[in-house]
Amino acid sequence: MLQGLKHLQDLGIEKVIILGHSQSLIRILVDNMSSRDFRLARVVTRIRKLIGSFLQVNFFHVLRQNNKESDAKANKVVLLPVGTQIRDKVEDWDLIP
């Protein structure tokens, strides 16, 4: 997640949708909670700093078995030229509300 956000920031992307299989990490980020795990707390701090540079960030939890699909989509998007419009619907990504 951290590397992806850095890449999006470098590209000048303003709106981000984050799909993740770690429900605890998503809850920590969405609910502005803290982590008791020192290593995770450091990562959360860095992610929050990056999130502040975007106009809009939405988080969605995906089941671990669906994470391969979301990871493949993310890797595909990273390879697109800057300015490419993505017409894929988020509703079609089997997200868990």
In words, what does this structure look like?
This protein has 97 residues and is of the alpha+beta class. It has a single domain, classed as Nucleotidyltransferase, domain 5. It contains 4 helices and 2 strands; from the N terminus they run αβααβα. A two-stranded parallel ribbon has the order 1-2.
What is the CATH fold-level name? Nucleotidyltransferase, domain 5
> What is the general shape?
globular
> Number of domains in the coordinates?
1
Biggest sheet, in brief? 2 strands, parallel
CATH architecture: 2-Layer Sandwich
Task: Kindly estimate the percentage of residues that lie in beta strands according to DSSP.
Answer: 5-15%
Radius of gyration: 13 Å
Highest CATH level, the class: Alpha Beta
Write down the overall mean pLDDT: 75
- Uncertain stretches of 5 or more adjacent residues: 93-97
Number of helical stretches of at least 4 residues: 4
**Termini separation:** 19 Å
Which structural class do you get from the secondary structure elements? alpha+beta
What is the share of helical residues? 40-55%
Q: Provide the CATH superfamily.
A: Ribonuclease H-like superfamily/Ribonuclease H
